[in-house]
Amino acid sequence: MTYKLVATMASGFEAITAKELNSLGYNTQTENGRVLFNGDQKDIAKTNLWLRSADRIKIIISKFEVRSFEDLFDKIYDISWDDYLPLNAHFPVNARSIKSKLFSTRDIQSITKKAIVNKISDVYRRNGNLPESGSSFPIEVRISKDIAEVTIDTTGDSLFKRGYRIDHGGAPLKENFAASLIMLTNWNSNMPFCDPTTGSGTIAIEAAMIGKNIAPGLKRHFIFEGFDWFDSSLLENEKNEAKNAIKDVDLNIFASDIDQNMIDIAKLNANKAGVLHDITFKQIALKDLKIEERNGVLISNPPYGKRMKESDEVHTLYKQMGETFENLHDWSKYYLTSDLSFEKHYGTKATKRRKLYNGAIRTDYFQYWK
Length: 370
Ligand SMILES: C[S@@+](CC[C@H](N)C(=O)[O-])C[C@H]1O[C@@H](n2cnc3c(N)ncnc32)[C@H](O)[C@@H]1O
Description:
The chain is an alpha/beta fold and 370 residues long. 32% of the residues lie in helices and 22% in strands. S-adenosylmethionine (SAM) is lined by residues 170-173, 196-197, 199-200, 202-203, 257-259, 262, 285-286, 301-303, 317.
């Protein structure tokens, strides 16, 4: 059976996810914060396993125009829920509404839930008391400009959770955010890579995983594994293929931080991710770095400094960054910070700036191309 599928991601990364899907062989259609594609169960397993930039993959099970709650109830009831949900399914319903006549998400949620309960009860001949003691099938109703879309999530915990993070030290970037930052550059595994403010190592670890072609989902579970109709051998096969696809390449990835604690944490994470020996970690202040390699890519996510005193400190750091890295003429350099005065302290104007949301925080990706 072919499903309509949707990959969701942080806005700003749609093109990256679309490119990832295209290289996995899918035709895509891009919308704000989401990329649509078609696929069967094998594709659900494959995309959950392989997408580095996405948050989750959902099955679109119905799409219809709706302007009243009666209509919402009827159209939700009309869906063949028994194709997806077993009698004991646990099915939390989440609702969203954007520019639509039906705007109360509480009412959309409760009416949807009631319509599904009624349908399942009718099909399985129950009296409305459903046990909900089985596997989870997270359902979402998203109404945008009076068009409702009903989805079932196949991912569960967001795909940024790769399963390698041991300790949330400092202010780590989400893993899919870090991977997307790398995929926005022209880095490939033959080139040197440097993260001079590595913190818990996320960017360097994601670079190593990209370099070695390690599927980001290899070490985690997905909620579709609990779907009774899902053929579990498909994920098993995809994982085995992914293990065989790991490349045995020598990478030149350097990651440093001024804080030895962060380096220790980064090493633990890298070890868990299986890339400890692919990254050279070092405790060193950025201003003392001497980079000899040629034609590399540098990505830094320095501290932002929200308070006054901190902001003086980070401005000094940005100045040091300019002094230390600007003479690396054959390197491309990328800096992610929410401090929009970054260029002033760094000393040079970026080739390109890109606005990206790190969660709720507006950040800019200052890009200095070689
Ligand atoms: C925002 S955090 C980086 C988070 C990282 N991207 C992650 O995902 O974990 C910034 C890091 O810069 C480091 N740092 C601050 N000043 C530094 C300096 N002068 N030289 C090198 N690293 C520095 C901090 O110790 C901190 O770990």
